[in-house]
Amino acid sequence: MSNMNDAVGLRIQYGQPGTQLETQFEPSSGTIWGYMNPKGAPCFNPGLLHDIRQHDAALEANGGRVCIGGEWMQARYYVGASRAPGVYNLGGDLALFMLLIRAGERRALENYAARCIDNLHARIVNYGCPSLTTIALVQGDALGGGFECALTSDVIVAERSAQMGLPEIMFNLFPGMGAYQLLARRIGIRAAEEMILSGRLYSAQKLHEMGVVDVLAEDGQGEAAVQQWISANRRRQNGSQAVYRLRQIVNPITRAELDQVVATWVDAALRLTERDLKMMSWLVRAQQQRTAEASAAPAQEAPASLPQPVAGAESLALAV
């Protein structure tokens, strides 16, 4: 086992098989690769949230270490990525939202939102491990909660064809799991509000120009770009990690603050009208269509962009 650190590029599968989070460890660089692999629509279903939290809670409890073949190894980087073709993550489980909102199930909505915050806040504070750098690898669309998930990372690497945005305003809601604070850290409050209220999709290149995306990679080269970034960063990791911690000191995002935002989100969700829910229903169908396209497409071929909305609806395809 002691020779694993010398095997550059070697990745070892670990964790529970059959879960919706596939985890690998690269001993030579101390990198965890975590791939979301949700069942059904590529969104944050309750099962995916559970599986991510199980893995990450163990990482927190063990001081940023993972057990590989009976040997504890320290993680220095944690890359969050996706196995869904052409999609990083499409965000909240909208089909579940609709059921709970129509039934007036406040407690269930609160519980779902709390699970999201459990996952996102843990990553915002680097799992309580000051020496652990978090990286988001966005290959495909990151919408709503998917975009929020990427924003929790210290570094965002995105392939050129990726699109990101916050479409919640389309159905008269807002992204309630930290997007406001996380975007404000990177681009300021005014620009964050403009992005949230526009509902637009932004290209990876545009977000790179804005300072949201840190590394812009060519399509198919995302993992290589992450590895190159890690290789270049290793000698200065201590200094760069300290700078990333300054973000939390200067612009802290506390769990209590996120809980207050979630309470506002739940209140707003329960005020949605039937017209709003119809638009949400269209987005659910878009998620389902996207899943079907991804399943039918050849492995090397990314699925098409989200379908255009029905006549008279606001357009999700207002890309920048």
State the share of residues found in helices, binned by percent. 40-55%
Low-confidence stretches: 299-319
Q: H/E series, N to C?
A: EEEHEEEEHHEEHEEHHEHEHHHH
Largest sheet: 7 strands, mixed
Q: Helices and strands: which structural class?
A: alpha/beta
Cα radius of gyration in angstroms: 19 Å
End-to-end gap: 49 Å
- Count of DSSP E strands? 13
**SS element count, helices:** 11
| Average of the residue pLDDT scores | 90
Beta fraction: 15-25%
Strand order of the largest sheet: 1-2-3-6-8-10-13
Shape: globular
Structure, explained:
This protein is 45% helix and 17% strand. It has 320 residues and is α/β, with parallel strands linked by helices. The strands form 3 sheets. Strands 1-2-3-6-8-10-13 form a 7-stranded mixed sheet, with helices on both faces. A hairpin with a 4-residue loop joins strand 2 (21-26) and strand 3. Helix 1 packs parallel to helix 3 and helix 3 (106-124) runs antiparallel to helix 10 (255-270). The protein is globular, with a radius of gyration of 19 Å.
Summarize the structure.
The chain is α/β, with parallel strands linked by helices and 320 residues long. The protein is built from eleven helices and 13 strands. A hairpin with a 4-residue loop joins strand 2 (21-26) and strand 3.
Blueprint (SSEs and pairs):
Elements: E1 12-14, E2 21-26, E3 31-36, H1 46-61, E4 65-68, E5 71-74, E6 77-82, E7 87-89, H2 94-103, H3 106-124, E8 133-138, E9 141-143, H4 145-151, E10 155-159, E11 163-165, H5 179-187, H6 189-198, E12 201-203, H7 204-210, E13 215-217, H8 222-233, H9 237-250, H10 255-270, H11 274-296
Helix pairs in contact: 1-3, 3-10, 5-6
